[in-house]
Amino acid sequence: MTFLTQTLIQGAFGFAVGAGTNDLAIRWIFKTIHRKKLVLGKAIQDVISTELMSPDSIIARLASPDVREMMERNIRDAIDRHCIVEYPSINEAVQGNPVAENAVNDGIERLASRLADDFVHYYTEQDARVKFVRNVFGKIRGVLGPLMPDIFGMILHMPELQARVRHEMARALQGFAKRPIGRLNRIIDPSARIYLASICADAFSAYLSRNLPVLLQQLKIWDVIHETIAGFDMNKIEGVTRRIINAELRGVTLWGGVIGLIVGISQSLVLWLLK
Description:
About 85% of the residues lie in helices and about 0% in strands. By secondary structure, the protein is mainly alpha-helical. Helix 4 (about 65-85) crosses helix 10, helix 6 (about 100-120) crosses helix 9 (about 160-180) and helix 7 (about 125-135) packs across helix 8 (about 145-155).
């Protein structure tokens, strides 16, 4: 066998061994990933939850001025959209829903009772009674003047009057519930909408800052990552990986062959020199 033939054979054999070895190593890596996908999922979960997307980093991002501005802008847009909608009356909105109708009626009764109680409580103060008497009756002269505030206070504590006040309050609220609400922009001017959006954005940011770690724990968002990887078809992951780094994997195989070729030629040369 001539030196050239021996060199070509050993070079080709070295190329095949080097390329084949690297290709087997790549296949072995993917097979290992298939077998240890649960461990892989846990590792990815830990990296994402502690380094890439930790609660502290998410809170810091949410507290940044640009995110705060984005939330305020979105809230303002939502308020503006609702302000141009023609809303019906409260009674029309809940019509046909017995639960909602009962809730509205109960709410009217409770609110009327609360307003009546507040009215009576306010006028239990002597200064308030005196001011009311003067505004209604003017400056009363004679014996009744000093007595009128006390008489008014006694009248306020009459059960019949308190029941009447509650009834009138409830009737006024029921009349309001029958009136169409219409467009809210007639009630809420642009400056108030801006202020409301700012308050809502601040409140939402503060809520997330305080409760985000608990929310993430309750939602088990990091467990979703682990469960998704555990249930994912690893053959698809291998296929996607090979499509993305196909050129690099071919390069690894090729370089293994080149190194094997060099080793084979070098070995042939050394054997020839030792003859």
